[in-house]
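Hi everyone,

Forwarding the result from last night's run.
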Amino acid sequence: MTKAMGRRMPVAVAEGKKRPHEPVQAAKFASEAGVIIRDNTNMEALRAQPVAEGETRVSSVQVVSQVLPKNSSNSFLKSVGIKPVGTSQASSSSNEIELREQLAAEAKAAVQDELEDLKKRSEEAEEKLARTERELEEMKKLTEINTKAMEENNALLKRILSLNNASST
């Protein structure tokens, strides 16, 4: 709701009061914020979150400014003078950052362990391949030796048979 000439209507809530005194401002407040707040049970969960040592409890204004940008693209917070908290700012608590770093370190360690295991398997496979290649070369040499011996035996048998045939005739 804007007044004439395109100006934004300020919503003023008197100190100690829960809602604006003027009916038009109350309607603006109820239409843009109230519906979203009532529909969003997540706000109560955000407000009830335990506070870590050294941190302050999240104020109602911060909770509203976290939830409103997620649910709508209205300009209520800006017109009231509250800067919406970005999701990256809201989720970057020191505890969360610490948990992310710990998770990253654990993932890195797991990947490193897996990499070392794969290297070990690779080395074992290369050793096995080299051993198999040596055995294959030995078998080729033995086959060559056996082939030569068989050819010599065949030649010797042919001589014996030819001598035996020559003496029987």
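The CA atoms of residues 49 and 57 lie 9 Å apart.

Cheers,
N.
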